[in-house]
Specification:
Blueprint lengths: L5 E6 H11 L12 H16 L4 E5 L7 H5 L17 H11 L3 E3 L6 H14 L3 E5 L13 E5 L4 E3 L1 H8 L6 H8 L14 H11 L2 H6 L7 H9 L1 H11 L21 H11 L2 H7 L29 E4 L3 H14 L1 E8 L9 E9 L2 E6 L28 H13 L4 E4 L2 H9 L8 E3 H9 L7 H9 L6 H5 L13 H28 L3 H8 L2 H11 L1 E2 L2 H25 L10 H11 L17 H7 L4 H26 E2 L4 E2 L2 E3 L9 E3 L11 H8 L7 E8 L2 H9 L3 H9 L3 H10 L8 H13 L6 H8 L3 H14 L1 H17 L1 E3 L5 E3 L8 H37 L5 E6 L2 E7 L3 H13 L10 E6 L2 H4 L1
Parallel strand pairs: 1-2, 1-4, 2-3, 4-5, 7-10, 8-11, 11-12
Antiparallel strand pairs: 5-6, 8-9, 9-10, 13-15, 14-15, 16-17, 18-22, 18-23, 19-20, 21-22
Helix pairs in contact: 1-2, 2-4, 7-8, 7-11, 14-15, 16-22, 17-20, 18-20, 23-26, 25-26, 28-35, 29-30, 30-31, 32-33, 33-34, 34-35, 35-36
């Protein structure tokens, strides 16, 4: 897998507004405004022609609220809606991006800046440098040794020096400065009376926001002191608003950002459709004979829309008689499209507003439950007598839900939803349960994998050639935005009924493909039955000891101060900003004169973790600085942030699992991400120690032992590894013995470590260079080890060649259970792209197979525990690990059932082994 070297992340929303305000009005032949589209297209074309980036993405904001709206409802609430002539151009700029075959990324609940921060982090961690194409000051907090910004309007790079010029501090302190001075454009409150210069001075004097607020009483200026003391909470809230999230589940895998050659036909058709003749001339593309908007082709098979349009008949249900008629119609149909409307994005806190049903294409209704619209409807006409002055009364919620309960629980009526996990969560809060379900999001995911997104709007455009009513059209934007319960009933009916209608239409297109494409088993045994299991897991959550986390945060804070003092002492007592790569570079390579320094293209010394690790054996300062960085990240990312994620009603943290996000079928966790809590360091384990069982209970951690290596032995039919696993011996010692021809008894630990590195790295395409760096040996020695490994286990090379051929033939590889893992780029003319796809193909059946196995175990566990009369509940899934909570008196019995179910989840030629322990905390149980 060739990692990215240079990643270009384009702030698409910034491009759109700059283009719109920078160009005079323009319209295409049908009258649609296109000045922003034209400007966006020319800017993107110029960027792509000038950059050396090998991975590129354009990142957009969505119209929906984000998590910041829940933290501070006034956030961006004052912003006016976009100009009317700009609104129809938003989807067209996304079409422009796809016409260049560039990845188009957006995600509901998060801003584009959060996605940019996440992709930048992932790119840097893979060793790449990043260019963020934007001048947005909020993104300046991301600038660092490997991350720069580029303003395409002023043709200038933005590095640490430019950030310091803007904010008076380095990038690492930008968030603290913004938290103090606020941001009027986004309605971030900050501290009244504190401007950017004062904020920068305060942060420079005290080091960070927390220290400043803790010592605010020491400030000599009375007015400033009182302002800070009175508005400390506003400053902390502001910090939450301005700090970018860098842990968002990647909606598109990094590999999909790889640059692809532009298809002249696709780009030409797009430009012709918009009337961009001058661009066609500049691109030297002949105009196609038709002028229709184009959609980027997907790698996976797609359905086509019906030949004839469907007439819509949407009904607003306000009487018991009408409700009974719809329920009877749905029961008779046996399949009903279903959707809920709520007041928010968090299913555990959102209020149910209404329910929509669809019984046939175009035939749907909306049933308000707790709707409270404004009095003046204006356009609503229920009885043919013209607009009414007052909002009609809706049925009492108890009546509506009482009538709907039997329908939802009727196993003979299939309820079809899109991302039903959310709807089931909301209904579960009201004591309602859905029986017999189909989920069009999961149908799409099973059929087409990661070849495209699986949001309802995207699938409707892709399969039905239909653009759904936008949320902003009914709820508004900025300061005029309202929650759905305040939307006029006529608009609410059109929006909600359309969702149920389109979901049912998608179901009729996608469900038959399961049989045609032999994907029934994957959907019916892995994805659909997992939904209610995940619903219960998310609702249970996991208890977190708030006091322990806060104490840990304080301890980390004290230790950071101590480490800073150590580092400064090692710098001959000369203070410097430990978070500043520029200052650190000068200390390492100019003051201490350490060897091996390299400068980036911006002229700064490189000070990444890899550089510090290489220097650690030459001087103690780099080692202490690594400790400081690690502790600072743990404090900001985990101990501080997790406290804010605790649900006040339950005292527990409730993560959300994305069911259709990854290439290989793995679940991903967010809000908060509990799959990335570190466990390899003492400090990281302390964080897991704060995850605790309820009184009288224990947490149980059940973890598959070396499951991916066992899958390699099985699918590649490696007899030597099979025998080693069957014997239950130390697999890495056995491998070292077999590969290097030494006795297994008393084997050299260094040799075992090398065998372990190859065992775990070989299936991911580890190179001699990568193995050499990992083990600290020469490239030649590493190559000798890899050659010896293949010589001892020739079956693995045969498996690799066989799998690559399967990918070239089909465009995908399959897991043991039939899941398709798509491999775009497997026939790419670019050798690096092709090699990347080949490595993904080799890894797909292994990582995907492991994901399938643990899903099979998760589906079977609830019934197995219930049949055994055990009260244990599943709380978390973290890759190959399940975390449960059980009464203390039932832990032994629960562990026995969990082991039996997990070890029996698949029948392989090697045994599946599960390590399980019970303890008071997650750390102790692991």
């Amino acid at each position: 897998m060739t990692p990215p070297r240079h990643v270009f992340l384009v702030d698409g929303s910034g491009f759109i507004f700059r283009a719109f305000h920078g160009l005079p009005p323009m319209t295409r032949p049908d009258g649609t405004p296109v000045n922003a589209v034209y400007g966006f297209t020319t800017m993107l074309m110029k960027l792509l022609s000038e950059t050396d980036a090998d991975h590129v993405a354009v990142v957009f904001d969505t119209a929906r609220k984000t998590f910041r709206s829940d933290i501070y409802p006034a956030y961006k609430a004052h912003r006016p809606p976009p100009p009317e002539e700009l609104i129809p151009q938003f989807p067209l700029v996304r079409d422009a991006t796809r016409a260049f075959d560039v990845c188009c990324i957006e995600m509901e609940g998060f801003e584009a800046d959060d996605l940019i921060a996440t992709y930048a982090r992932a790119a840097v961690e893979s060793g790449a440098r990043v260019t963020i194409v934007s001048s947005d000051k909020d993104l300046m907090q991301l600038v660092g040794a490997s991350v720069e910004m580029y303003d395409p309007m002023k043709y200038r790079s933005i590095g640490e020096a430019e950030v310091r010029e803007k904010f008076g501090v380095g990038p690492d302190k930008v968030v603290d400065v913004q938290a103090l001075c606020g941001d009027a454009s986004d309605n971030v409150p900050g501290v009244p009376g504190i401007g950017i210069k004062t904020a920068a001075q305060l942060i420079s004097d005290y080091g960070d926001l927390d220290t400043l607020l803790a010592r605010a009483g020491e400030i000599k200026q009375p007015k400033r002191r009182e302002t800070l003391l009175e508005n400390a909470d506003l400053a902390r809230i502001s910090r939450q608003l301005v700090r970018l999230r860098a842990d968002v589940p990647l909606p598109v895998p990094m590999e999909d950002l790889a640059v692809k050659p532009v298809n002249p036909e696709t780009l030409g058709a797009f430009c012709a459709a918009q009337g961009f003749r001058s661009l066609l001339s500049r691109l030297k593309i002949k105009a196609p004979p038709i002028a229709e908007p184009v959609r980027a082709a997907t790698a996976a098979p797609t359905s086509t829309a019906p030949a004839s349009p469907v007439t819509t008949d949407y009904d607003l249900v306000l009487t018991e008689a009408a409700l009974d008629r719809w329920i009877a119609e749905a029961t008779k149909a046996g399949v009903v499209g279903f959707d809920t409307e709520t007041t928010g994005l968090d299913p555990l806190r959102a209020q149910l507003v209404g329910v929509s049903l669809a019984v046939a294409p175009g035939r749907a209704c909306y049933i308000p439950v707790t709707h409270n619209p404004p009095q003046a409807q204006g356009s609503l006409d229920l009885g043919g007598s013209g607009p009414v002055a007052d909002a009609p009364k809706i049925l009492p919620a108890a009546v509506t839900l009482g009538r709907l309960t039997p329908l939802l629980a009727d196993p003979s009526v299939l309820k079809v939803g899109h991302n039903l996990k959310y709807d089931m969560q909301v209904l579960a809060g009201l004591g309602l349960r859905i029986e017999a379900l189909d989920d069009t999001m999961l149908l799409s995911y099973v059929l087409d994998g990661a070849s495209h997104g699986h949001g309802l709007d995207e699938l409707c455009r892709l399969h039905l050639d239909h653009t759904n009513i936008a949320f902003s059209e009914v709820c508004g934007t900025g300061k005029t935005q309202v929650t759905f319960d305040r939307v006029p009933l006529d608009k609410a009916c059109a929006y909600a009924a359309e969702d149920a209608d389109m979901t049912l239409r998608l179901h009729r297109l996608l469900k038959p493909r399961l049989l045609n494409e032999r994907m029934v088993t994957v959907y019916e045994t892995l994805e659909r039955p997992l939904v209610p299991v995940i619903v219960e897991m998310e609702r249970h959550g996991i208890k977190v000891d708030r006091a322990a986390l806060m104490a840990l945060s304080e301890d980390f804070g004290r230790r950071l101060v101590e480490l800073e003092a150590e580092v400064i002492a090692l710098n001959n007592g000369e203070a410097f900003n430990l978070g500043s790569p520029q200052q650190l570079g000068k200390v390492l390579f100019e003051t201490l004169n350490l060897p091996g320094g390299k400068k980036t293209k911006t002229g700064q010394w490189a000070t990444g973790a890899d550089v510090l690790e290489e220097l650690a054996h030459l001087h103690p300062l780099p080692a202490r600085l690594l400790d400081w960085r690690q502790l600072a990240k743990l404090k900001s990312t985990y101990t501080d942030a997790l406290v804010a994620e605790i649900n006040p009603a339950t005292g527990r943290v409730h993560t959300s699992y994305a069911l259709a996000a990854t290439t290989t079928g793995r679940l991903s966790s967010s809000d908060p991400n509990l799959q990335n809590i570190p466990i390899r360091t003492e400090e990281g384990r302390k964080i897991r120690h704060a995850f605790v069982a309820e009184p009288g209970h224990r947490l149980i951690s059940a973890d598959y032992s070396q499951i991916e290596l066992r899958l390699v032995a099985h699918v590649a039919e490696i007899e030597g590894l099979r025998t080693a696993f069957a014997s239950g011996a130390d697999i890495h010692a056995i491998t070292a013995s077999q590969v290097f021809g030494v006795p297994v008894e008393g084997i050299d630990p260094a040799l075992r470590r090398r065998a372990k590195a190859i065992n775990f790295g070989i299936i991911y395409g580890i190179s001699a260079f990568g193995l050499a760096a990992q083990l600290g040996i020469s490239n030649g020695e590493a190559k000798t080890y890899i050659d010896a490994y293949f010589a001892r286990y020739p079956e693995i090379r045969a498996y690799m060649e066989r799998t690559k051929e399967e990918a070239r033939t089909n465009g995908f590889v399959t897991t043991l259970f039939g899941r398709k893992v798509f491999t775009p780029g497997i026939k790419d003319k670019n050798g690096a792209m092709r090699a990347f796809a080949e490595r993904a193909a080799i890894n797909g059946p292994i990582q995907g197979g492991a994901a399938d196995i643990i899903k099979r175990a998760m589906i079977r566990l609830p019934d197995a525990l219930s049949q055994a009369g055990l009260a244990a509940r599943m709380l978390l899934q973290v890759h190959d690990e399940l975390v449960l909570e059980a009464p203390e008196t039932e832990t032994d019995a629960t562990i026995a059932v969990v082991r039996r179910v997990m070890e029996g989840a698949a029948s392989l030629s090697v045994p599946l082994v599960v390590d399980a322990r019970a303890a008071l905390s997650w750390d102790e149980a692991h």
